[in-house]
Amino acid sequence: MSQERANALVEKANELHNGGNKLEAAPLYVEAAGLFPPYASFALVAGDSYAEVGKDEEAIAAYRACIAGVPDHDQAWLGLAKVLHKAGQIAEARDAYKKAGKSFPGDGFLKRWFGIG
User: Fold this and answer.
1) Rounded Cα gap, residues 29 and 50, in angstroms
2) Which residue range forms the structural domain that includes residue 47?
C-alpha cells in the first residue's frame, strides 16, 4: 500500500517539478521517500530545490531523508554539507563533506597558513 501511495506522490511531484513548480513538488518527493525506501533518492531533488531558494531547514531535512534511505548517497551528503556550512553548522558540515568524499572548503588554506585543519 505504501508503494502505491509513493508512486502516486512521485507521479504528481514529477508533473509539478517538470512544470516549474519545484517547491510544490519537493514535499511530495520527501513524503514518497519516507513511505517507500527505494524512492529515497527523490528526496535529493527536494533538497536541491529547497537549497536553490535558500530554504535551508527544509533542504537539510530533505537531504537527511535521502540519506536515511541511501546512507552512502554522495550527492545528498554534499548537498547537506553545503547547506549546513551556509547555516554555520561547521562541525556537522565538516563531517558531511567527509562522508561525501570531499574536503571541507578552506581546510587547505588553514593547514597551509596556520597549521590547523
Assistant:
1) 12
2) 2-114
Question: CA-to-CA distance for 109 and 70, rounded, in angstroms?
Answer: 32
Number of structural domains (the chain) is 1
Model-level pTM?
0.88
CA distance 111 to 10: 45
In the chain, where does DSSP find H-type helix?
2-18, 22-35, 42-52, 56-69, 74-86, 90-99, 107-114
Q: What single-letter amino acid sits at 51?
A: A
CA atoms within 13 A on the CB side of 64: 10
Residue corresponding to grid cell 552512502: 72
**Rounded Cα gap, residues 84 and 112, in angstroms:** 24
pLDDT digits (tens, 9 = 90+) for 34-70: 999 999 999 999 999 999 999 999 999 999 999 999 9
We report the CATH number of the domain holding residue 102 as 1.25.40.10
101: left (phi over 0), alpha (psi -120 to 50) or beta: left
**What CA–CA distance (Å, rounded) separates 46 from 50?**
6
